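From the thread on structure requests for the teaching lab: each student submitted one protein with a one-line request. Submission from student K.M.:

"Model FAD-binding oxidoreductase from Noviherbaspirillum cavernae, tokens only."
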Amino acid sequence: MNDFLNKCREAIGAAFVLTDPADTAAFLTDWRRRFTGKALAVVRPGSADEVAALVKLCNQFKVPIVPQGGNTGLVLGSVPDESGKAIVLSLNRLNRIRAIDTINNTMTVDAGCILEHVQNAAAQADRLFPLSLAAEGSCTIGGNLSTNAGGTAVLRYGNTRELCLGLEVVTAQGEIWNGLRGLRKDNTGYDLRDLFIGAEGTLGIITAAVMKLFPQPRAQLTAFAAMQTPDDALKLLSLAQEKCGAALTGFELMSDFCLQLVAKHFPHMRPPFPQNYPQYVLLELSDSESETHANEMLEAVITDALEQGMIEDAAVASSIAQSKALWNLREHIPLAQAEEGKNIKHDVSVPISRIGDFIRATDVQLQEQFPGCRLVTFGHLGDGNLHYNVSPPEHDPADAFIEKQEAINRVVHDSVHRFDGSISAEHGLGALKRDEIRRYKSEVEMHLMQAVKRSLDPLDIMNPGKVV
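Reply posted by the TA:
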């Protein structure tokens, strides 16, 4: 492989072909630090042309490629296996914001741009880029597109797929497809863009994208509501949608145990109520008219919800600081879980109308089979996405509980399937769920996916062992 590595150095510069273990370590371990792979090298191209040159070399030498953005994935999609045969192709040097068009409401960005930087660039142009998720300070646009990331604003703006108008992609043969068209209507054949979005780098490497921008809202209001059951939360969701329409941009559900964990590990963070309730919802409105109009809508929702017995109490943020404090409660749930210790995570979706039934049925099954397990249930109720995580009983050894992961996954995923849901809502399949998905997709669907893979990547060098 020395010949291959030397040609890589010639293509992109020796400084950007990393082989020393001290230099490559950060690229080989997954975000949760549960798995470390091996790689022939980590390569860091600086342009789409350099990416294409590297892919052509990989074709010539039959070297697998693992594309990587911010390496914030949770399903082992952006790290190599333990064979040491692949290269990791990091896109973090492709970090230019190429253009902002405030008339067309689009931004053209390199795939390695950090999500938070894209949000800030949009704000400086008096526009909103609405994709928002916990890893936004580290994750990249290319990774967001490759996993079709969701986040907290899907209810109003959709997943990353809905926010993208065009792509630049290096194919598995090392050709560059320039599809950077900022068009909202383009009915000229197969939608190649949608093939690459959500493909987790298994069909080609996204190097740039045209993303949608939106006008900055004139008012953003946040409220926190307490209730008895997820069914009450669903009733509140229907009421809020009826009264607020598209102004409802966030609707997050979290159980009391989630906030108990937050308070335990971050004592300065507590719900804004004098007593605990079984369930909570965080609502956010983004209004294009005025703060007065937004307040009127939110007051109408809260008043009606209290009168109809949907909620027990509610608090409305009266300042940016209070709004951030409420969002911090939601955003610190994963951090509190990490502080509590190892747990078994599930990123699932079910039809919104069936969420209450799913939670009840699955809670009962898990408690019957794994008595004392603690359920950390939270997520984006407005789009049907739950992070349905299972922690060990309080005084049980975490490692022994993690050994039951396969059995616990079976209970949860079978329940998801019964409720017509998906075992991966926004994290993707990666290597972690690649075999698991075969239990729930039909042979027809799997054969179609495999046919696409064989057609676009006949040598199977693009992120092999992931997705299909």
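TA comment: The mean pLDDT is 96. The CA atoms of residues 131 and 152 lie 8 Å apart.
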